[in-house]
Structures are given as structure tokens and as C-alpha cells.
Specification:
By secondary structure, the chain is mostly beta strands. It has two helices and 21 strands. It has a single domain, classed as Beta Barrel (Porin), CATH 2.40.160.10.
Length: about 400
């Protein structure tokens, strides 16, 4: 009965939002704009008896589950050359700061951001992905990664360059774990103090536009190096990553590709070198391979729908990515996503069918360490509809 009441409430809430004009809930306070979003998920897939992030409730596995995903508040500030952005997110049982920075726009179109901001690594904010699931770069901390520091973006003729220095990760906020109540995947200490914390990270990214007939391409490279601090029995370590990426647009098609190599120099609790590093995000911990290649590719098509009253445009896509581990005893972690994003006014809806043999959010019958050793190497599926209203 309680589940039926919750599903009825979400259904009525989404119907109410659907009837509202875009931006009806947003408002301005002088140079400050206030907005946000509310999102709900329908999920069905391969799920066993263990707990897994964002899985359907046990009582509704056979028929799927419909529940609140997140509620967020956004603040955007702009006055003269000064700018700022903040975002705070609430999930079921935990909440955290997603973004929080102040910045300055210089006359030469350069920009400085100071605070919790997106690390410049990869072809764009979400890597090559168009989907709600993202690609595997996100789950090893190499796309849409928020850290605390400064980023300077500028241009040299056509060449766009970003420089970043991050004193530490974005931190952990309020949840059931000490160090994993956060949005971005980071190397973290577990609740017993074992593991590492990121500090003193340097980033540089360069992207150059190239025209080849009817195709426009943004060709780029990214580099990252940082230190790892341990308060446990392990010695301090370090990590680095390098990536080549390209986003190619021809007509309404977008073909994006990325190849990344990363390595964490880490030890286990006994002081021995290890091929696993403890990561945290979404209020849970997960082991990740300490050294791997990450290839990713996506193909999408932007289709405007002027003759459909209830739809502005749709973006169908297909994506593939993998964590190809250097440790030969580990199984790789692959993921396919077939889906589409549908937009109407303030609505943005994802419909994703994900199929993976190594992602914590796609099934959990094969257990944990799916980004790490992935011992079962079992292919599982998740069908997900994310209803998002942005105001």
C-alpha cells in the first residue's frame, strides 16, 4: 500500500509539472537566477538480493520500480564580468554539493573559475556520452568530475585551452558513509580510514576545431596528474591519466570517440602494491582497477520535430565503452547503451537500455567489484526511463 501511495504521488507530481510552462518555477533576484530540477526513474533489470546503487526495490523487481531520482536547486549569478554557479542535490538518504564556484570573464573571452568546478578532461562535460547512464569514463572519475580548485579557460586563435589546479576533491557531505556522499567518483578512504584522498591535481586540455568538407571536428587531448594522501598504513601515492578525443559533426549526426589511459600508484592496508583502489560516490564505496585503458564511442542524431506539438526534438543514440584492465586476472568492464533523449519545454526524458558485464548500476546479481576484478564477468541489463523537469 505504501508503495502504491508513493507511485501515485510521483505520477500526480509529474502530471502537474507536465502541465506547467517551461521555466514557470524559476525566478530572478537581481543578477541571481534561481532554478532547479526534479527527476524520477522507472527501472527494471537484472537484480539479485544484495544492495546496489539505484536498483529497483526488492518488492517491485519483476514489474520494475518507479521512484524519485533527485531534486536539485541551481543558483546562477552574473553581473558585469563576475559570474558564479551553485548546485545542491538531494537523493534518497543522502545529499551533497554538486557545484559551487565564483568566476570572472576577461575581455579576451578568457574565464577563471574558483571553487568546486568541473575538471577539464575529455571532449566535453559528459565525455562522449549523450545518455543518462554516461560512459565508463564517469565511473573511474574521468568525466563530469567535480573538484575544489581553480580553472582558467582561454583561446589561442582557434585553439581552446583549459588549465586546472585542484587542491582536493569536492569532499563528502551528508549520508550513511563518511567519505562517499558525493556526486563525482573519486579515490577515497573507506569508513575505517583505509584508502586515499586526492590532492594537488593538475589538468590541461587542448581542443582544436578542424573542418573537413561537410564535417566539423573538435580534436583534443587531455592530461591529468595528482597526488594521493593516505592517513592509513599505506604510503602516499599518485595518479595520472592521458586522453585523446574527437567530436565529429556532419549534418545532424554526431560521432564522438575517446581513448584514455590511467594509472593509480597505490598500496593495500598491508603496504603492498595493489591493482585495486577504493572509490566513492552516491554514498557507497566500490573498488576500481588501478590501471586501465578506457575506450568509448557514441553515435547520435539530432532530430527536430516541428510538426509534433508535444515534442521539440529527440536525440537517439548508441554508445559503447569499456574499462580494459592491465591486471590480467581482472575481467574487463564493458557497457552498451541504446536509447534516446526527448525534449519538450522544461522536460528532458531519457529512455535507456543498458547492457553491461561490469557496471554497478546495471544489475547486481554478479555482486560487487564490477569496476575492479569483475570476477563473474556476467552480462546484465537495465531498462531505465528518467523523467526530468528543469526549471
Amino acid at each position: 500500500m505504501e508503495k502504491c501511495k508513493k507511485n501515485l504521488f510521483l505520477t500526480l507530481l509529474l502530471a502537474f509539472l507536465l502541465a506547467m510552462p517551461a521555466g514557470a518555477l524559476a525566478f530572478d533576484l537581481g543578477p541571481l537566477s534561481v532554478g532547479g530540477a526534479i527527476r524520477a526513474n522507472y527501472v527494471i533489470g537484472d537484480y539479485g538480493d544484495g544492495a546496489s546503487p539505484s536498483q529497483p526495490s526488492r518488492s517491485d523487481r519483476d514489474g520494475g520500480n518507479f521512484e524519485l531520482d533527485t531534486f536539485r536547486i541551481n543558483l546562477d549569478y552574473e553581473q558585469d564580468s563576475w559570474i558564479g554557479k551553485a548546485e545542491y542535490r538531494f537523493y534518497n538518504g543522502y545529499h551533497f554539493l554538486h557545484t559551487g564556484w565564483v568566476g570572472y570573464n576577461f575581455d579576451d573571452i578568457s574565464q577563471l573559475q574558483v571553487g568546486v568546478n568541473r575538471v577539464p578532461f575529455g571532449p566535453g562535460p559528459y565525455g562522449v556520452s549523450q545518455s543518462w547512464m554516461f560512459d565508463q569514463h564517469y565511473y573511474v572519475g574521468l568525466s563530469d568530475d567535480m573538484d575544489l580548485g581553480a580553472k582558467y579557460s582561454t583561446s589561442f586563435d582557434k585553439l581552446k585551452v583549459d588549465f586546472g589546479y585542484y587542491v582536493m576533491d569536492e569532499g563528502s557531505y551528508f549520508g550513511g558513509t563518511d567519505n562517499a556522499a558525493r556526486y563525482s567518483y573519486d579515490a577515497v578512504e573507506d569508513d575505517n580510514g583505509n584508502g586515499y584522498e586526492e590532492e594537488h591535481q593538475f589538468n590541461i586540455r587542448a581542443i582544436y576545431p578542424v573542418e573537413m568538407g561537410n564535417m566539423n571536428s573538435d580534436i583534443g587531448a587531455s592530461l591529468q596528474y595528482g597526488l594521493l594522501d593516505s592517513s592509513g598504513p599505506q604510503d602516499d601515492g599518485d595518479h595520472w591519466a592521458a586522453s585523446m578525443h574527437a567530436v565529429n559533426k556532419f549534418s545532424n549526426w554526431t560521432l564522438a570517440a575517446q581513448l584514455t589511459y590511467y594509472k593509480y600508484d597505490v598500496e593495500d592496508a598491508t603496504g603492498q602494491s595493489t591493482e585495486l583502489v577504493n572509490f566513492g560516490a552516491y554514498d557507497y564505496y566500490t573498488p576500481v582497477a588501478a590501471e586501465a585503458w578506457v575506450p568509448a564511442i557514441s553515435l547520435s542524431y539530432y532530430l527536430e520535430t516541428p510538426n509534433i506539438d508535444f515534442l521539440n526534438y529527440v536525440i537517439p543514440y548508441v554508445e559503447y565503452s569499456s574499462i580494459v584492465k592491465e591486471e590480467t586476472d581482472f575481467n574487463d568492464s564493458e557497457m552498451w547503451v541504446l536509447g534516446a533523449a526527448w525534449a519538450r519545454g522544461g522536460w528532458y526524458i531519457y529512455t535507456d537500455l543498458a547492457y553491461s558485464n561490469g557496471n554497478d548500476f546495471v544489475g547486481n546479481e554478479s555482486g560487487w567489484s564490477r569496476f575492479g576484478a569483475n570476477p563473474d564477468d556476467e552480462w546484465e541489463y537495465r531498462f531505465n526511463i528518467n523523467f526530468g523537469y528543469y526549471f
